[in-house]
Structures are given as C-alpha cells and as structure tokens.
C-alpha cells in the first residue's frame, strides 16, 4: 500500500510541475513550445535522439525480468517490434490462421470404410 501512495505522489508531482511549466507559456521561447508540441504528439517531427529519449517513456522498471536493462539490445529490438503499428494486425492474423487450421484438422478427418 505504501508503494502505491509513493507512486501516486510522484505522478501527481510530475503533473503539477508540467502544469506549472505550461502555465508560464508567455515566458517560453518558440523552440521550447515546439519541443512541447513534439513531445505531446501534436507535431510529427521525430529525430533519432528524441525517439531514444521517448522510447521507454512511462515505463518505470529499470530491468525487465531482473536481467535486461533499458539499454539491452534484445530488449530494445523487441520493444520496437511490440510498439510497431503492424504488430497487433500480425498477431490477429496468426490467431485467425491458427483457428482455421484447428478447424480443418478437427472436421476434415478421412475415415476409412472399416470405421463407419
């Protein structure tokens, strides 16, 4: 229970800092406003350094399965595959193909004349 409260406090503090930062929009430069728009996804311009910085945004664990750090090559590759827009479609297609194969294996059985 204590960990939940601590996490909630950290999230609340981050939101408060973000609100205070955005409240002073008159003091921001054009570049800072552009950075905010890009970070929020309003502007689609993305560079490799921005993608690297935002890759694990919202993920608080430092090591996956107590083995793979955030900089581990395998973890980076698999995370990029998982985040790709076609990942869900490919998984659904594989499930459909598997279901069709199961249906054909179950109902298209060739019985010999002796068993009928």
Along the chain, the helix and strand elements come as HHHEEHH
Write down the oligomeric state: single chain
Q: Tell me the number of strands.
A: 2
As a percent range, the share of strand residues is under 5%
Q: Which strand order spans the largest sheet, edge to edge or round the barrel?
A: 1-2
Terminal residue distance: 64 Å
For the CA atoms, what is the radius of gyration? 25 Å
Largest sheet: 2 strands, antiparallel
Helix vs. strand class: mainly alpha
Residue windows where pLDDT falls under 50 for at least 5 positions: 1-5, 10-14
Number of individual domains: 2
Overall spatial form? elongated
Helix content: 55-70%
The number of distinct helices, counting runs of at least 4 residues, comes to 5
**Mean pLDDT across all amino acids:** 75
Summarize the structure.
This protein has 116 residues and is mostly helical.
Describe the structure.
By secondary structure, the protein is mostly helical. The chain has two domains: 1-54, no CATH class; 67-108. It has helices at 2-23, 30-40, 48-54, 73-83, 87-107, and strands spanning 63-64, 68-69. A two-stranded antiparallel sheet has the order 1-2. The model is unreliable at 1-5 and 10-14 (pLDDT under 50).
